[in-house]
Design a protein that fits this description.
This protein has 392 residues and is of the alpha/beta class. The chain has 12 helices and 15 strands. Helix 3 crosses helix 12 (373-390) and helix 8 (227-245) packs antiparallel against helix 9.
Amino acid sequence: MWRDLHDVGRSASSGGYFRQPWTSAESELRAWFTEQALARGLDVETDGMGNQVAWWRPSEASGPAVLTGSHLDSVLDGGAYDGPLGVVSALAAVDVLRARGFSPSRPIGVSVFTEEEGSRFGLACLGSRLVTGASTWADARERRDRDGVFLGDAVAAAGLDPSTGLLSLDDVGCFVELHVEQGRDLVDRDVAVGVASEIWPHGRYRFDFEGEANHAGTTRMEDRRDPMLTYAMTALAANKQARLAGQRATFGRIEVAPNGTNAVPSRVTAWLDARCSSDEALAELVDAISRQAGERASRDETSLRVTPESVSGSVAFDPDLARDLAGIGDWPIIPTQAGHDAGILSAAGIPTAMLFVRNPTGISHSPDEHAETADCLAGVDALADTLARLAR
């Protein structure tokens, strides 16, 4: 399965992946998932957004279902493991359970949620948000990507129609997501597998800096209203405030107008990604960065507008479930600073857990993202043991 996915959406120059939702690469991935599920005799359900679930329903299985899986989309120039490892491992775990002669007493579903990264339309976990009702199609369809394409048009162009319905999670009793760790906690502990305790709250905020376009050569430095200077100070302030507070703040995307080498810009738009250990800490960090940005804008004679584009509160996973699963393999219970579909399902009231597989460098959202095969196989066995415990 891993070889099947290796070249789908992969850049020949960087080695990274461009698997944005409702593109040809993502359509190929959905077709691959369907093929793999049908080859295992699983019943495949695809909704009008492209969310998928492959069901293992033996005749004797009944009661609330156990759902597992992850996502197949990537960030721009992303790594191979973020998302696909959870999907491939879930299918492999079904194989392991069958090889053991295990027959579940409850249905088991392998899920793929679309647009988890939010890399195209700016709202992370969009597929699971729509399925759980955390977001509505009426609002989501008006979102635009970087090329100005409406989400509604992108979905239609992919041959999908949300009016035909979305997945129902009414019969799901619990959800378990396996994911490559996006950090070094398991490396430091020298263990291959861990269980999640919580997801830090995080948000994406758009900073619009407005100034005055002018000639780069003829305009004296003291006569400029340069929004790039305001942005530059804001990026440095974000770094300093996050370091002082022990939190996370990143400006990773920027747009400049008119974007000319010999012109003072008129506008700079930058996106802040902020993640903190508590909801209160997140609010305090963003307020501190915004306040310093506003003060600098006053000195630069520029203007600033801050718009929250998506904010997700802290998620504490079911502690009893986490302890129960950790006891299967004496796995450590650790927090994560990355957002996941598991967080959306947990917030919707579904008992949820996560398993992490060790990442030897901690690098993620990069072509250098990696996990050793032995650790991945340990993750498959851990997920199989977990599903057996939950579906018994």
